[in-house]
Hints:
alpha+beta, Rossmann fold, Elongation Factor Tu (Ef-tu), domain 3, 7 domains, six-stranded mixed beta sheet, 20 helices
Amino acid sequence: xxxxxxxxxxxxxxxxxxxxxxxxxxxxxxxxxxxxxxxxxxxxxxxxxxxxxxxxxxxxxxxxxxxxxxxxxxxxxxxxxxxxxxxxxxxxxxxxxxxxxxxxxxxxxxxxxxxxxxxxxxxxxxxxxxxxxxxxxxxxxxxxxxxxxxxxxxxxxxxxxxxxxxxxxxxxxxxxxxxxxxxxxxxxxxxxxxxxxxxxxxxxxxxxxxxxxxxxxxxxxxxxxxxxxxxxxxxxxxxxxxxxxxxxxxxxxxxxxxxxxxxxxxxxxxxxxxxxxxxxxxxxxxxxxxxxxxxxxxxxxxxxxxxxxxxxxxxxxxxxxxxxxxxxxxxxxxxxxxxxxxxxxxxxxxxxxxxxxxxxxxxxxxxxxxxxxxxxxxxxxxxxxxxxxxxxxxxxxxxxxxxxxxxxxxxxxxxxxxxxxxxxxxxxxxxxxxxxxxxxxxxxxxxxxxxxxxxxxxxxxxxxxxxxxxxxxxxxxxxxxxxxxxxxxxxxxxxxxxxxxxxxxxxxxxxxxxxxxxxxxxxxxxxxxxxxxxxxxxxxxxxxxxxxxxxxxxxxxxxxxxxxxxxxxxxxxxxxxxxxxxxxxxxxxxxxxxxxxxxxxxxxxxxxxxxxxxxxxxxxxxxxxxxxxxxxxxxxxxxx
Length: 640
C-alpha cells in the first residue's frame, strides 16, 4: 500500500448547517466534485439521512466537509457530525430564507462552541436581485451578536457555478484565521461509522479531535477498554502514515469485528481517558426552551455519542429559558468525555433542542446534600487556571489525586501535571507525596494527617507507659483507609525530620520518650529477671514466673517485653525464654566437650552436658544451629 506523507499545512472540518432542501449536499458537490450522499435511500429520496463526507484541498488547506442532515427526523445524526467541526458553512436558500432547521442548526453550532464560519445563499439563480438583498439582510440580522456576526455572506449557485470560487476563497481565509487544533494532546477520535473492508477487516471513521496517531500504534477502544492495533489510515480519501487533530479519518483496526463497534464509541491513546456515567457541567438553555426542572430527563449528545440523562441542579429547582447554571448529568450509558467538551441537550418529549454547554468535570461524584463546596469547585474548574484547578481537585480528594486521574479529568499531558504540581508544592498549596507515579495531596489534608499522627503518638505513650513505641504498620493502620500508605510515609518522614517523632528500627516514638517504672514495677521486673537467671538452662515458662508476682498478668507481660528488648532475656522459641547469662555459657561448654569427646554431639549427650530435659534440649540445639555454633548432621550436631 502506498502511503502519502505529503499533506497540506492545515486541516479543518467544515460542517454544513441549514434547513432541508436548501442545497447543502449539492453545494458540497460543487465545491469538491464529490456528492456526500452515500446511502441508496438518500440518493433516491434526495435528502441526507446520515452523515456524508467530501474533501477539498485549496491553497494549502485540506477541508473535510461533513454534510449533516437537515430534516428534523435526522437531527441526531446532525449532532454526531457537528461535534468535530472547526468552521460552519451556514446554508440559506435564497428563494426561501431562514427556516426552522436553519435556526436549530445555528443554535447547535453556537452551543458547541464553533467560532467561525461562512454564510452561503444557495439557489441564487432562482432569486431576483431584490429577493437576494432581502435574504442577505435577514441573514445579517439573524447572526447579529453571534459568532457569525461579520462573516462573509456569499450568493452562490451550484447549478451555474456562480460564486463558487469566491466561496472557496472565503473558506480559505476563515481557515487561516482559525486556530490550529493541538496535535500534541493525547489522541482521541469519536467514532461515527464502523464497517468491514474486504482484505483489511474493520474500519472506523470519525474526526480526530485531539492528538495524532500513526499506523502500527495501539489505541484503546472505549468504553470497551480494549487495546487494538492500527493497521492503516486514510485521510481525505488517501492512504497516510499518520492522522492528527482536525482531520477526517478512516482507521483500519486489527483484532476486532466491526459489529463490536458502535457510533458513540471512541478510540484514544491507551490509558489516558475514562468512560463515565456522571458529569458536572455548565448548562445553558435557549431562550426558546421551556423551563428545565430538577430531575428532568433529556437527550444528551456529545461527540458522536447519544444517551438519556437525568438532570440534577446544584442551585435551585429549575433553570429558566435563556439562562445558565451548574448542573450534574446522570447518564444512562457510559461515554467518554473530557473537560471542555461541548454537548447538546434535547427535550425528552417532544424532542427538540433546548440547550447545551461545556463539560467541567467528566468524572463527577454523585450529588450529595452535604456537598456545600461543589458550586465553588465547579466555578474554579470553569476559570481554566491550571494551578487553581489542581489545587481544587486535591482539596476535594482526601486520599490524594493520582496522576492518571488528573489526566483523565483535565486532559493535560503528564508533563504538564508534574509542572503544575511542582509549582503548587513550592507555594505550599499541595504536597507531592509520591513522584512515581505522581500523587498529589492537599496541604490542608497533609497537615491534618500530621496532626493525627502526633495525637495518636501522644495517646499511645500515655496508654502504654511500659512500651517504647508503636510499630510503624500499627500506627498507619490506626489512621484508617482514608489515608494512603504514600501519604502516611511522607507525613511520618516529615515529622521525623522535624524531630517531632523518632524512629527506632520499626518502632515510632516521641523523641525523648523513656520508660519510667514505678517502684512496684521495678521490683516486679527484677523478680522476673531473677527467676530466669536462677533457673539457668532449665528455664521456666513465662506463665510460671508471672504466677509468683503480685501484679496482674498483662502488666507482667509488658515488663517481660522490656527485659527482652534490653537483651537481659532471650526468646529462642515461642514458648522458651532464657536468661542471657545462661546462653552465654553454652559456647564454652561446647568447646570443652569438643576437646575431650570429639566434634559430634547427640541429644542424650547434650542433655547430660547441660543438665536439662529433652523439652529444653531440642529448642536449644536449634538455637545453636541458628547461631552457627553447631550444624545438624542426621540425629547429631557437629560442633563448629
